[in-house]
């Protein structure tokens, strides 16, 4: 059975069923050939620890990848490179050329987080965040997949009532390389009254909308077959075109039920009745906001992974949280979002669904045994730090071996 078939099987099951199914996004040819030809597969992974808690959580995820990989006959060649503030301190730029080319040449990229107080007042081109935007642009990853799943073990961590949060399992597909974050003209200027203005432009082309819509329909098709496109088509021309093109692409996917929602209503519905959503597709800025809102339904930002995919080349996998400078270096970070990002890397980036499932099962097992970092702690559980949480996940990955042998 090929690795892609296995991938399909695994995506249908389990609470982490993120739903993009067998990779419809073109898979890196080398990875597939490698996986199919030999029981021992080898992948080059660029690790970008970044700033703040980034190095702490990446260190945990790397060890988990190594162990799960070893059990599944996968070898990883890790290449660690600086990005964000760490790169600024080392090289004077937030994304050194060497980091980008290492990332482009690898099979997948795993990022911790970037940013911190130290660089907050830097000029824009010297901000850590600029490095992240350049990385996404350089890897041409236009589709950001963010699952928000309320795990039964953590339902009490949600700020929503249990009956509202229980069973939520949704995926936000966010357009990542277009819209107002990149649109031109932009900048500062002066209006007719001589007053200073800040200017940004929300702009989308048909090809940009069509390709993200296709990713979203494919994703919905592998989940519960429901896609909600979120826009502001009652006000914005860019949204009017968005809606028109999403409806046109829908003709290719008659099996997917398409609905539309204005973004203000979607923000409200996400806290009123989040279970109504299966897959949401939206533009860059609405996706940025709605996916953070969706994340809070699950209880902790420290639990949520993400995948950013392009048409070809390596994907970028990262937790959705930032560098958490308030807890950096204190062994308090929850590493599970990064561990689950590593699982997404295996599943979506490399087509290694068995190894991904092994990691997901280990995370669930660790939570079942009551281990909690501070952000997800509740009475009756065992409070652990980042390192200990990592060790417990490793034990669970090992346990899984015993259970399957
Ligand atoms: N993709 C990224 O790298 C990314 C994303 C968002 C923010 N940032 C940057 O991170 C810095 C801090 O931003 P912020 O405070 O708005 O967002 P943040 O996500 O870093 O932190 C928000 C809150 O959540 C907590 N938190 C975050 N991740 C956690 C984890 N894994 N475990 C436990 N608690 C966790 C933090 O302690 C903090 O209280 C800024 O410089 C910002 O630009 C980077």
Automatic annotation (TrEMBL):
Keyword list, A-Z: Amino-acid biosynthesis, Branched-chain amino acid biosynthesis, Leucine biosynthesis, Magnesium, Manganese, Metal-binding, NAD, Oxidoreductase
What chemistry does it catalyse, as a reaction equation?
(2R,3S)-3-isopropylmalate + NAD(+) = 4-methyl-2-oxopentanoate + CO2 + NADH
Gene3D superfamilies xref list: Isopropylmalate Dehydrogenase
Give the Pfam families listed for this entry. Iso_dh
- Record GO biological process: L-leucine biosynthetic process
Cofactors demanded by this protein = Mn(2+); Mg(2+)
Cofactor info, note text:
Binds 1 Mg(2+) or Mn(2+) ion per subunit.
Whether S-adenosyl-L-methionine counts among this entry's keywords is no
Q: What class of enzyme is it?
A: oxidoreductase
Annotated pathway: Amino-acid biosynthesis; L-leucine biosynthesis; L-leucine from 3-methyl-2-oxobutanoate: step 3/4
EC code(s) of this entry: 1.1.1.85
Q: Where is the Isopropylmalate dehydrogenase-like domain?
A: 44-393
Q: Which InterPro entries match?
A: IsoCit/isopropylmalate_DH_CS (IPR019818), IsoPropMal-DH-like_dom (IPR024084), Isopropylmalate_DH (IPR004429)
Q: Name one GO molecular function term.
A: 3-isopropylmalate dehydrogenase activity
Family assignment from sequence similarity: Belongs to the isocitrate and isopropylmalate dehydrogenases family.
Function, in words: Catalyzes the oxidation of 3-carboxy-2-hydroxy-4-methylpentanoate (3-isopropylmalate) to 3-carboxy-4-methyl-2-oxopentanoate. The product decarboxylates to 4-methyl-2 oxopentanoate.
Subunit architecture = Homodimer.
**HAMAP family in the record:** LeuB_type1
Q: What is this protein called?
A: 3-isopropylmalate dehydrogenase
Please name the source species.
Answer: Punica granatum
Record gene name: LOC116199628
């Amino acid at each position: 059975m090929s690795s892609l078939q296995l991938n399909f099987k695994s995506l249908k099951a389990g609470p982490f069923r993120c739903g993009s199914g067998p990779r419809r996004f073109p898979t890196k040819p080398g990875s597939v050939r490698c996986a199919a030809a030999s029981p021992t597969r080898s992948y080059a992974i660029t690790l970008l620890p970044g700033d703040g808690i980034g190095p702490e959580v990446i260190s945990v995820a790397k060890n988990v990848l190594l162990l799960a990989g070893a059990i599944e006959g996968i070898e990883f060649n890790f290449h660690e490179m600086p990005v964000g503030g760490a790169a600024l301190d080392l090289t004077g730029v937030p994304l050194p050329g060497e980091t980008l080319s290492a990332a482009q040449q690898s099979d997948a990229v795993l990022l911790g987080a970037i940013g911190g107080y130290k660089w907050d007042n830097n000029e824009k081109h010297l901000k850590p965040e600029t490095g992240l935007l350049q990385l996404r642009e350089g890897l041409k990853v236009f589709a950001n997949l963010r699952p928000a799943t309320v795990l039964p073990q953590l339902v009490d961590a949600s700020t929503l009532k249990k009956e509202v949060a229980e069973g939520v399992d949704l995926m936000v597909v966010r357009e990542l390389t277009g819209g107002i974050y990149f649109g031109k003209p932009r900048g500062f200027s002066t209006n007719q009254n001589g007053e200073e203005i800040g200017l940004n432009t929300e702009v989308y082309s048909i090809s940009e909308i069509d390709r993200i819509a296709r990713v979203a329909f494919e994703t919905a098709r592998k989940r519960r077959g429901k896609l909600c496109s979120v826009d502001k088509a009652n006000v914005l021309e860019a949204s009017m075109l968005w809606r028109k093109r999403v409806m046109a692409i829908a003709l290719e996917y008659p099996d997917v039920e398409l609905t539309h929602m204005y973004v203000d209503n979607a923000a409200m519905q996400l806290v009123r009745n989040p279970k109504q959503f299966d897959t949401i597709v939206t533009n860059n800025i609405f996706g940025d906001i709605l996916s953070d809102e969706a994340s809070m339904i699950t209880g902790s930002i420290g639990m949520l992974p993400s995948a950013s995919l392009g048409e070809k080349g390596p994907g970028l996998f990262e937790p959705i949280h930032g560098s958490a400078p308030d807890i950096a270096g204190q062994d308090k970070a929850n590493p599970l979002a990064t561990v689950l990002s590593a699982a997404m890397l295996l599943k979506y980036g490399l087509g290694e669904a068995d190894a991904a499932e092994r990691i997901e099962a280990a995370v669930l097992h660790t939570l079942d045994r009551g281990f909690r970092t501070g952000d997800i702690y509740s009475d009756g559980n065992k409070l652990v730090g980042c390192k200990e949480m990592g060790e417990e996940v490793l034990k669970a990955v090992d346990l899984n071996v015993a259970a399957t042998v």
